[in-house]
Design brief:
Layout (H helix, E strand, L loop, with lengths): L9 E10 L2 E11 L5 E4 L6 H9 L6 E6 L10 E4 L10 H11 L7 H11 L15 H13 L5 E5 L7 H16 L3 E5 L3 H7 L2 E6 L2 E7 H6 L4 H7 L6
Parallel strand pairs: 3-7, 3-8, 5-6, 6-7
Antiparallel strand pairs: 1-2, 1-4, 8-9
Helix pairs in contact: 2-3, 2-4, 3-4, 4-5
Length: 240
Amino acid sequence: MRAPPADLPIVFADAGIVAAGVTILDAISLSIGPGAPSVLIGPNGAGKTTLLRAATGLTPLSRGRVTWGGREASPPTRRAILLQRPVMLRRSVGGNVRYALRVAGIPRAEHAPRTADLLALVGLEGLQRRPARRLSGGEQQRLALARVLARDPAVLFLDEPTASLDPYATKAIEDVVRAIAARGVKVVVSTHDLGQARRIGGEIVLLHRGRLIESRPTAEFFTDPRTPEAKKFIAGELLI
């Protein structure tokens, strides 16, 4: 897994999305480049999920533009997104991954070694034969990560991957994110967890009411926030 420059940087230029008369993203100008994970934070309704979907090309813009490696038209073959609450197929753990490899067009001869590699990456190497629906919530989320990685994405988008998970399961997901990033995959992740943002983020992107408030390296964001909204959010105060 390597992230070639083909899809990077992802650049939003005055990008906006309006649905049913409601502005969801408002004049976003942002560049997401190679390197450590980019973490989107902000209160509910800030626009994090919509920004992720727009970055993958799943949700079209109402105005402005988004480019991938300088191109507006870019097939999403090297981009993948994992949304909340993934569905487990009625197969074994290994069967779920092999199905994803088949859908991705991976030759059958490569399925066994690729399945073993992906399950080892997410810490499920000893559970190949277990029914996927008998896994814990955290294990199911790691299996979902293995499935989405079957496409060998250069850029991986994760929407609240640890929502509702306990601290142990959360740490396991964060370890996987670090391992994925170490393989050269660009990870863009949304979260409500400021501790998680500190632990895994190379840069922080704060959204509020669909607008970009701050985009800065993680250490700078937390030690020297520049905007009132950032200071309030770090302090745990409600942004309204």
